[in-house]
Amino acid sequence: MRLCIILLLLIAGVSSAFAGGVDVILVRSDLPQEFAVAQAYSHFTGIPIVTTPSQELSEDAREQLRGYIELGYRNLVIIGGEKAVSLEVQREIDALGYVTRRIAEADRYGTAATFAKEFYSSSEGAILLYGESSENLLLAMRLSSATGYPILFVRRDSVPPAVKDAIASLHVKKVYLFPQGLEQNVMKELSGYEVIRIEKGFTLPEKKSNALSLAFIAGFSLGVLTVLAYLRARRIRQRLPYEILSEDEERVVKAIASEGGTLTQDALPEKTGFSRPKISRIVKELVDRGIIEKVPKGRTHELTIKKEFYRE
Known about the structure:
With 312 residues, this protein is of the alpha/beta class. The chain has twelve helices and 13 strands.
């Protein structure tokens, strides 16, 4: 057991050294370009990605973040500005115990460029594609995973200044370019680099073997251990003592449990003897604490118990 703990700490240490102290990356779930930037880096380092809607933290994201915080993860990076991921979401993540910061510029071109400069430090190459289309994102992510090069976005007719600055800062010599949707002027602006056009019939290179391969292996191993530990922690959290509930809450939970774990809210007054306003207050508290799930059903709501309770 002690050897396993030491091994886990060594793996975590190696991974963190290459990941710049970042434990988790969070991106908005419906922004494919930002997700591609994060996912490409995740493939190379093993750092987990959590996705969420813009204005509220999803229940799945909340569960994942709670699991990671129990494993000692603390440093979280949000990709995108406040329109992408709201301040309310950031505050909720802070309340879970994370130290959060943002990588955000005026647009996705600047954001991807800043991310590349901060997290890649230097790179022999870069992957460029049209920033207003998601057509080639999947292949770009696979190419980034194989080469270890960052993903950057260009405009239809030009290479944004922030991208040029990133390429120069990273000491890039080689550019993989997806020409689809781009005008010839983009090629002219890249004339000082070795440009490899990604067109039909292109074959992905073999995975690059370099110093970061150790980080990839360590990150992958840590990711597997993290998932296993998280699932175990989640199973433990799903079994709770009745003592954490108030007397009224326990009556509501038991009323739902007596019907197989699912019951409509409008059936609870008769089952418990409580008034409808009181039921509403108790249900809200139980939902906020993650004990029951509440979904609309006709003119009422269907309530489902998410935890298993026992008497200590």
